[in-house]
Write a structure and sequence with these properties.
mainly beta, 5-stranded antiparallel beta sheet, 4-stranded antiparallel beta sheet, 1 helix, Nidogen 2, Wnt-protein binding, Thyroglobulin_1, disulfide bond, Cueball_EGF_LRP_Nidogen
């Protein structure tokens, strides 16, 4: 008998595979894995594992507004049924932090808040800032001008934001044309954002409200992950952990003058941060286990720390780097001057931490 013809993977199947990789191939029973039919189309009914929380989706897998239901009440994804009389589910609770300096980190379905006292981690006052049921928050950045936190969600395939003001509600600003949005960077000068999509192998930009969206790059990308912007000089930096040829690249914020910055002696460059004070671009590499920095022209490369565990995301603040780590499932502080690991915070709930960003009361070099 003839072999069945291998058809290319559908959107549903690729998204499913991408999420399974995020869960380490073993999702918990309450985690979302897209349900595809035999042809690879999205099942009209989608649920969070066996939790009973279900909703209907359209052909491209986007949630149909107003169809989310509680356990025991199946949503009406069949046209023969009457529309649901489901009360809108309550918004995730937002507990705005006090002013001052703090770190925000992504941990699965929540964004955590970890205050700093100088550069020390104030672990005893850490708490959840946002609970986002059903999300997997990966990329995280902060707009210091309007005091808004922005994040990517690879489960919802969205880019979202929420103000840090009391009573603020999360809003979705991009919800189409995304597969696995991972890295996110905010340019507070130009009021734009950039993100990497490791499912579609693209780098895109848009205004902070999601308008004027355009693709910057969709060629020569295999596994784009972290992205960072130097807003003052108008430069963009990103990593690609392509196992065959990992690299860090740079261009202007408009996508001009793209070039490779680093492609030697790197393995799995997961995290990337631009330090506006030293003007260094620095990365955390889960392959080489190193934290390294270089000048924006690729010269002056030096190793800060060569014994990391499994870093995922990194941010620079004052004389420290802070990175999330998948072996420790925590936030690690590294002194920039001597490379010492000075502190760590391990949340009680153990699970992978993804993006991390620093929030301080001013904008670096901002025009008032």
């Amino acid at each position: 008998t003839a072999e069945p013809i291998q058809r290319p993977q559908t959107m549903c199947e690729r998204w499913r595979q991408s999420l399974l990789e995020h869960y380490g191939a073993r999702p918990r029973e309450d985690q979302y894995v897209p349900q595809c039919d035999a042809l690879g189309n999205f099942n009209p009914l989608q649920c969070h594992g066996n939790s009973g929380y279900c909703w209907c989706v359209d052909e491209s897998g986007r949630e149909v507004q107003g169809t989310r239901s509680e356990p025991g009440v199946p949503p009406p994804c069949l046209p023969s049924l009457a529309p649901p009389t489901v009360q809108p589910s309550p918004r995730p609770d937002v507990t705005p932090p006090a002013t001052g300096t703090f770190l925000l980190y992504a941990q699965g379905q929540q964004i955590g808040y970890l205050p700093l006292n100088g550069t020390r981690l104030q672990k005893e006052t850490a708490k959840t800032l946002l609970s986002l049921h059903g999300s997997i928050v990966v990329g995280l950045d902060y707009d210091c001008r309007e005091r808004m936190v922005y994040w990517t969600d690879v489960a919802g395939r969205t880019v979202n934001r929420a103000s840090l003001e009391p009573g603020a509600e999360p809003e979705t600003i991009i919800n189409s044309g995304l597969m696995s949005p991972e890295g996110l960077a905010i340019d507070h000068f130009r009021r734009t954002m950039f993100w990497t999509d490791s499912g579609l192998d693209k780098i895109e930009r848009a205004r902070l409200d999601g308008s004027e969206r355009r693709v910057l790059f969709d060629a020569d990308l295999v596994n784009p992950r972290a992205i960072a912007v130097d807003a003052i000089r108008g430069n963009l930096y990103w990593t690609d952990w392509n196992r065959e040829a990992p690299k860090i690249e740079t261009s202007t914020v408009d996508g001009a003058n793209r070039r490779i910055l680093v492609n030697k002696d790197i393995g799995l460059p997961n995290g990337l941060t631009f330090d506006p004070f030293s003007k260094l671009i620095c990365w955390a590499d889960a392959g080489t286990k190193k934290l390294e920095c270089t000048l924006p022209d690729g010269t002056g490369r030096r190793v800060i720390q060569n014994n990391l565990n499994y870093p995922f995301s990194i941010v620079s603040y004052a004389n420290h780097f802070y990175h999330t780590d998948w072996r420790r499932d925590g936030v690690i502080a590294v002194n920039k001057d001597n490379g010492f690991l000075t502190d760590e915070y391990l949340p009680e709930q153990r699970s992978h931490l993804y993006g991390i960003t620093a929030v301080y009361p001013y904008c670096p070099g901002a025009r008032k």
